[in-house]
Specification:
Layout (H helix, E strand, L loop, with lengths): L1 E5 L2 E3 L6 E2 L5 E2 L5 E3 L3 H15 L2 E7 L5 H10 L3 E5 L9 H15 L4 E4 L11 H9 L3 E12 L4 E8 L2 E8 L2 E5 L11 H9 L4 E2 L1 H4 L36 H14 L4
Parallel strand pairs: 1-6, 1-8, 6-7, 7-13, 8-12, 9-12
Antiparallel strand pairs: 2-5, 3-4, 9-10, 10-11
Amino acid sequence: MHIVVCTKYTPDSEAKMSVDEEGNISWGDSPLIINPWDEYSVEEALLLRDQHGGTVTVLSVGPEAALEALKHAVAMGADEAVRVWDEACAGSDTLATSYVLAKAVEKMGDVDLVLCGKSTIDAQTWQTGVALATRLGWPSLMYTINLVELRSEERSITVERLLEEGRQVVEAPLPAVLGTTKGINEPRYTSFIGIRKAAQMEYPLWTLEDIGAEREKVGPQGSGVRWPEVFEPPAREGEAEIIEAETIEEKARILTEMLLAEKVI
Ligand SMILES: Cc1cc2nc3c(=O)[nH]c(=O)nc-3n(C[C@H](O)[C@H](O)[C@H](O)COP(=O)(O)OP(=O)(O)OC[C@H]3O[C@@H](n4cnc5c(N)ncnc54)[C@H](O)[C@@H]3O)c2cc1C
């Protein structure tokens, strides 16, 4: 089995975004981390490898900072890591990003399953996994909450998808693109040996030429979406009142009376 996990680096979830007058977005000096939703995909890939054998490759489209995400995945236990980047990719939307991801997966050639997270915590469009499946022409199994069975010899997979009002069991042939969601597993911590391996490993950088991607299909010229304006939402106005009382029960009673008086309850 060759399982590829797509992962993106994101600012830490505590980071505060700001936008300057030219519309440039900054996350300050927040540390860059693996997109937290991608940790579920890495974990699921490692579990599948333990069960079926094979290789887990993590793949990221991004500048040098994207190495942080790859290193984290290797420290969790991934075998290989590939970064794809070219300055022409800057300003890519999901249409262009999914194109680059698809070309990289095609270059790998022997891929049985691609795993994506449900979304990223910064741009969070939730589109990349579906777009990647569409580009590859493979089944798209998004919001998978339970991987029921992977039959490597039959080359098929059964998963449970999380819907708003229930769950749906779906079967598909391999290769496929699977989007994980919270609850599918409990991602492991990075190990000391894994961190050492991640620090010493070579991280191949593939250019657009390496993956056979056309320059006009990446970056702003390859994107369908423009950002005519980016701005911070107005600061929320409100007041806070701290309820002072001797006991928690007394505080709860006062709070209840206040909520009743305001007709909130
Ligand atoms: C006009 C425009 C300009 C932009 N310019 C830039 C820019 O200059 N620099 C920049 O960093 N972003 C830029 N973005 C944001 C960028 O398009 C998205 O971050 C990217 O396409 C992925 O979308 P998403 O973050 O919403 O991921 P989602 O679709 O929410 O993520 C789902 C899953 O897809 C996978 N995935 C997503 N992105 C990647 C990736 N890069 N590599 C590997 N796997 C991935 C992960 O598994 C993730 O969990 C721009 C967006 C627009 C619309």
